[in-house]
From TrEMBL:
Cofactors: Fe(2+)
SUPFAM superfamilies xref list: Peptide deformylase
Gene symbol of the encoding locus: def
Protein name from the UniProt record: Peptide deformylase
GO terms for MF: metal ion binding; peptide deformylase activity
GO BP, sorted A to Z: translation
Catalytic residue positions: E154
Species this chain originates from: Salsuginibacillus halophilus
Function (record text): Removes the formyl group from the N-terminal Met of newly synthesized proteins. Requires at least a dipeptide for an efficient rate of reaction. N-terminal L-methionine is a prerequisite for activity but the enzyme has broad specificity at other positions.
Family note: Belongs to the polypeptide deformylase family.
HAMAP family: Pep_deformylase
Signal peptide range: none
InterPro entries with a match to the protein in the record: Peptide_deformylase, Peptide_deformylase_sf
Cross-referenced Pfam families: Pep_deformylase
Length: 179
């Protein structure tokens, strides 16, 4: 099972590389990896398991974060309308997005980042994602708000992008100006 020791932390080169697409239908090995990623998220949100194994509660995970340079992501969370998003995706791709942006009020964190990085992370408010699920189904997901933010954060990991790369520099100036 995946635990926090398997999660690669910032500074490890794999987090700055572009992950490779996987062949479909997926190999048994790639299916197992993606299933383990999804299970980690579920475990991390189960109070007993999370405490027993000291897991940080995660809503999304990308394969490079466990040192696997492949285009796999897993998500497990409920959105503002209490809709459950729980899935693994092979080769996820953002095929279109809104011009309009959104962001999490408190900024973002990352399972691979053991520090607080303040600042708003601009994300597209709506995105359309294509990918292949664990049971081999090609899906097209139309996402908005929190689900869109999670998928953008995870797909960024497949392209070696960390959330703080997107924090506009001017925010510091604003803080300086306000002091
Ligand atoms: C790094 C961590 C803080 C654990 C983060 N969790 C998170 O943001 N939970 C959350 C946020 C809410 F807005 C409401 C709520 F109910 C729970 C997370 O799992 N990730 C996943 C990750 O690091 N993937 O690589 C970071 C999130 C930042 C934005 C989307 C994913
Ligand atoms: Zn992350």
């Amino acid at each position: 099972m995946i635990t926090m020791k398997d999660i690669v932390r910032e500074g490890h080169p794999v987090l700055r590389e572009v992950a490779e697409a996987v062949e479909l239908p997926p190999t048994e090995e790639n299916k197992e990896t993606l299933e383990e990623m999804l299970q980690f998220l579920k475990n991390s949100q189960d109070p007993e398991t999370a405490e027993a194994y000291d897991l940080r509660s995660g809503v999304g995970l990308a394969a490079p974060q466990i040192g696997v340079k492949k285009r796999l992501i897993a998500v497990h969370f409920t959105d503002e309308r209490d809709e459950l998003y729980s899935m693994g995706l092979f080769n996820p791709k953002i095929i279109s997005h809104s011009v309009e942006e959104t962001h999490l009020e408190d900024g973002e964190g990352c399972l691979s980042v053991d520090r607080e990085v303040t600042g708003i992370v601009p994300r597209y408010k709506r995105i359309t994602v294509e990918g292949t699920t664990l049971d081999g189904e090609n899906v097209t997901l139309r996402l908005r708000n929190f689900p869109a933010i999670v998928f953008q954060h995870e797909i960024d990991h497949l392209n070696g992008i960390m959330f703080y790369d997107r924090i506009p520099d001017f925010q510091d100036d604003l803080k300086r100006d306000l002091q």
